[in-house]
Amino acid sequence: MKIFKLLLCTLLSFAFVIQPQKIAKSTCGGYDEDYMASYSFFSPLNFENVYQSVRAWDEPQDDNLADWERYLGKAASREDISAIVYEVSADDMQKIRNYVEGKGSIGAELQNNSLVKYWKKKPDLEAIDYLFFAKTCEPHAWQQDTWNTKPEKDVQTMRWLAEAGKKYYQEKASNHFLKMRFAYQAIRMAQYVGQNKKALKMYDELVNPIFEQTESIIKYWAMAHRAGALMANGETAQANYIFSRVFDQCPSKRVSSYLSMRFSDGNVWQATLDKCKNIAEKNTLYFIRSLEKGSNILEETKNIYAQDPNDSKMPIMLMRSVNELEYNLLSDTPQENILFYRGYQSYPRQEAIKSLLNLKNFVEQVIKEGKVNEMGVWTLAAGYLDYIAGTPQKALNTFENLKKKEKSEAIKNQIALFETAIRITQMSKIDDKTEDQIYQEVKNHKHEGLQNLMLDVFEDLYKKQGQPAKAFLCKNYIDRLKITPDLAIVRGMIELTEKRNTNFEEEFLLTRVSGSFLGENVEAKPKDILREIEATVLFSQDRLKEAISIYEQIPDKVIYQLDNDPFMTDIQDCETCPPSADQGKYNRRTLATKLQMLKDYSENNTIEQANYFYQLGAAYYNMTHFGNSWLAIDYYRSSFDFHEAREQIKEGKASKSKTVVFTDCSKAKFYFDRAMKAAINRGNRELAAKACYMAAKCEQNQYYLNGNLELDYWAYIPPSYKPEHRRYFKILTTEYQDTEYHAKVLNECTYFYEFVR
């Protein structure tokens, strides 16, 4: 299934990748070995006749509904046909039959269905009876899965349904459309219940006589069950051959047919090939074999080319060969990319280089021999392969010559797309004029892959030219700043919003700044949002006066309101604290203002100095990862932050953190130390004990952040009672044992209780 999903994605988009520096591996349909490249610039041109209705691999209902539309002469809407065919029950079909005959009533919804209305005017009891029978069979068509979530087969009922289908074929169907459908139901019931010989006999008796007399897609569904019965009987080559015919003719059974085929050895393959009646059938088998994991796509392409150079599958094979090369040769790391790395000694790169040369040689052979009709496609491929091989100018020359010869507008547009992509990848600097020209050109192409390429290249150039804000917006929305708030980026964005004459590219980038950052119900100007972020970053750096000045210039609705009381402390940390008188009182601006006021007041040796210091310590503690008001200076917190902080400390690279993590309690401890000293000087031993305990919490958090503890970040970190980790516990025990707060801590804090014991 995964391999075939890759094929189907290839049919939808030819993944010619033009930018070598930024090729990001991705998957199509979840396949994790082959892939569709991030930038798909080559769209199928004249391949509409190749395996049409590719969507049918996922939606087999479409084929069936189209079949019903043809039968009904479009007398009803597809939506209403779908409701009757796929949604109503067998009991409902019986009620509809009675209603059509004037023997009963049905609900308003069914009465208003255009198909039911049509039947009411022109009764087709045969079609109604068929749908009743099909809905009776459907519950038995499910096969048991490995989890045993589906019921056991009702063998007796399924055998009866197989016989009933044969009988109704003869008695209830006067046209080939309905006869084929009764035959299909009968055959699949027989095959699913293990009556394979009976299923084959039914196929010969019921399907073969009318196979050429109907265009209904159901004849191929019945053929697939014939192949399944043959496979079960050990006739592998014959089953493979029939599955290949279904694969070729029926999009809605293509995946199941491919998955059902078995090529256990060379003898089975040759026996299957020998059953083919013409070149086209053999080429279908070569194509199917190329889908196998580890297959040699180029060799299978050559096999098809030797038989019929204009087989419609040839361009598809070419696409898949290019995809395989992209996977092996193009990387999002320049040093590992074929255009930059010249070692080529490691596997599979060395083999991929050979594959590139082999494919180039074959493409050049095809062009030289001139046997294919789709010469423009092959010439485009030749140019692209030149680019992969490191000769972009040769590729451009190829495209220029092709433009002079080619009349197809589709191919001319494709060349223009290639040329724009190559021009983007060759940019070494960027200015306002070039930026705008490229943006307009890319916009005119209306191609998502080309836009992504442009943004990747622009991001790199903006970084090199000292424009971090524009670089950031190339790949991110403003919400990303929740995780990585960066003052330089924020200020660059603000300058962008203040620019009088922004160009089209800058206008596009500014669309990534929106009020969604604040929540669905908050609308704000981009500049106000950015100023709030700027102020909050300054707040997190303790640059309070600068932060307050900015907060005062923006509306309060943009400033984050804190749920908890940032000055509240307790024995145990609390993310959602008990109610307090000041709960919900502060936002970021008012909290920053209060902190600045406390700092100013605390410089005076007054009777309240100890209390001021304690409040400062409490707020700075609560604004860390461990406190109840971390949102005062941060937008995002994750359980992974603690682990990342430990790793940063261990490796000594906190300043290089990708994620800002506020786990440092040193400022809080600084103020608790001063509070303890000032309280002692004023004779307030209870406040001194309280400040001592809070300093102990800061000390404990620092121990938890020790990056040398070899523990998984999800693991429980055992407490330490070593003297160097419990200095404040010792002070609390020796200096404040007579305080009420000491008794409270001893009663409520297990760590302190264990320390004292």
Short structural description:
The chain is an all-alpha fold and 757 residues long. It is built from 36 helices and no strands.
Describe the protein's architecture and organization.
The chain has 757 residues and is mainly alpha-helical. It has helices at 2-12, 61-72, 78-87, 90-100, 108-111, 114-121, 125-141, 155-171, 176-192, 196-207, 218-232, 236-249, 254-260, 266-274, 279-290, 297-307, 314-329, 349-369, 375-388, 392-405, 409-425, 432-445, 448-464, 468-475, 487-498, 504-510, 526-540, 544-551, 588-602, 609-622, 640-651, 666-681, 685-704, 727-735, 740-748, 750-756. α7 (125-141) packs antiparallel against α8 and α17 runs parallel beside α19. The chain starts with a helix and ends with a helix.
Largest sheet: none
The residue ranges in which pLDDT falls below 50 over 5 or more consecutive positions are 1-40, 42-58, 144-148, 331-348, 515-521
Helical residues, percent: 55-70%
- Put simply, the count of helices is 36
Compute the average pLDDT. 83
Overall geometry comes to elongated
Radius of gyration over all CA atoms, rounded: 37 Å
- Terminal-residue CA separation: 65 Å
The proportion of strand residues reads under 5%
Based on DSSP secondary structure assignment, what is the total number of beta strands?
Answer: 0
Q: Based on helices, strands and strand pairing, what is the structural class?
A: mainly alpha
